[in-house]
Design brief:
2 copies of one chain form a homodimer. The first copy, chain A, is mainly alpha-helical. Chain A is 63% helix and 0% strand. Chain A has helices spanning 22-40, 47-54, 58-61, 68-92, 97-114, 131-157, 166-183, 192-207, 220-230. The two termini of chain A are 31 Å apart. Chains A and B meet through helix 6, helix 7, helix 8 and helix 9 of A and helix 6, helix 7, helix 8 and helix 9 of B. The structure holds a DNA duplex.
Chain lengths: 232, 232
DNA sequence: CCGGGTTGACCGACCGTTCGGTAGAGTGTA
DNA sequence: TACACTCTACCGAACGGTCGGTCAACCCGG
């Protein structure tokens, strides 16, 4: 994404409308910065790295951003925006707890697998934020956490939850989900569709009872044999 | 752990056997460095941070260590040693796949919960290692991964695995386990025993079939009510 | 010729690391 | 006992380098 290795520092084309509208350029900087920070880590990424990748000098990008920490905060906020939009809000409108849970799992995993959901990794670099920014992000993460936890509590009341503390269940779910962006490779052998299907099965049945998979229990031997080909 | 705030830079006592044997002091440095790096991250931790915490000058600690990267590698190797000793080796001697899986989950989680298993977090900072060191650590992690994956494959052959790709199952398990050290607080409300019990239930039934919890299905309403007190 | 966009030069702070030096305990010798 | 020497443990200072960030000047389309 956004590969621009042998590109001159500045596009010298005469152009009535400049190639970059200001806000587009800012967006571009955020996007490139996110990409680099995701793979190298926040601390290990220098402003020069970002400037080079974006085709400006370090001084140049300060025309668009306030500073490095602000960059991180903005990216984190954007990541949370996406989660809000794609996962939390749709889920909040679902009344049935079980359906809400599966939606959360499915939508969040889908985001990571299909969109550039690697941004989620940066959500772990909380220590690098100023206290104020850290509070903001923490509150948003907390809201998400509470949504899942309350969903598990509802499921417990319905007798659908396993004999587990909802908090432990919630953390376990978040662990599985967050981990995806660490191991999923777009060029790997497993297709997003297959991963998504299997992952939903794993995540949901981790916390819910009676998910023996009655519907799919047919032909287990055949499917197991098929699967052995892939592995090893 | 190892709190020594108001301790003078150097213990000036006359003592036939010095307070610190050299290897002890080195160990102490590794331990303190691990602690700080765990909570701040590798890059964000300066040698001065470590020196201050250990009660020496920055120059002084170079008497005991080779460098910062070496410090990280040594800590990672130690973490893997512990996993080898406490989890992998005991598990390798178990012939029954299901028992092996539960043992792995239980022992690894127990390590993180009871010993200072937060070191596991540092195992994610692979990019900071030299290529040679990175290869070493990666190989050890890979061996662990393969152990779990092969166990899941055995379980698939036995018809005990859910209808999932073993690789996805393995990653999900590692996600849940690794995540524990990010959220578990020793001074939190949940006891290690309770977490361990619930976590095993979650992790094992994430990948295994027919774990409806028949044995503990009694009194679900009462237990659910009890649990609601804790949360919120 | 005005002004937004961009630059190269540069700043102070801090990084990991090294080096010369030293306090003090141990050891050998007389 | 006294002195000379060695060795370990450690420190102060400084190294070369990079960091995030700033600024006066310039370019160029309007």
């Amino acid at each position: 994404m956004i590969a621009r290795s042998p590109l001159p520092k500045q596009a010298k084309l005469k152009n009535a409308t400049p190639i970059w509208r200001k806000e587009d350029r800012a967006d571009h900087i955020y996007r490139v910065a996110a990409e680099i920070m995701c793979e190298k880590g926040y601390e290990a990424t220098s402003m020069n790295d970002i400037a080079d990748a974006v085709g400006l000098t370090k001084a140049g990008i300060y025309h668009y951003i306030r500073g490095k920490e602000d960059l991180l905060f903005e990216i984190m906020s954007y990541a949370m925006d996406m989660v809000d939009q794609d996962v939390i809000h749709p889920a909040q409108e679902i009344v049935d707890a079980e359906e809400r849970l599966t939606t959360i799992v499915e939508r969040h995993a889908k985001r990571i697998l299909e969109v550039g959901g690697a941004v989620t990794i940066l959500l772990e670099e909380m220590y690098a934020l100023t206290p104020a920014h850290r509070r903001t992000i923490r509150a948003r993460k907390r809201a998400y956490f509470d949504l899942v936890r309350q969903t598990l509590e509802e499921l417990a009341a319905e007798g659908k939850l396993r004999e587990i503390n909802p908090v432990v269940g919630t953390f376990s779910l978040f662990g599985m989900i967050s981990w995806i962006s660490r191991w999923y490779r777009r060029d790997g052998e497993l297709s997003p569709q297959q991963i998504l299907h299997d992952f939903r099965e794993v995540a949901v049945s981790a916390v819910l009872r009676t998910r023996g998979g009655a519907a799919t229990r047919a032909l287990p031997a055949a499917r197991a044999a098929l699967r052995k080909k892939v592995a090893r």
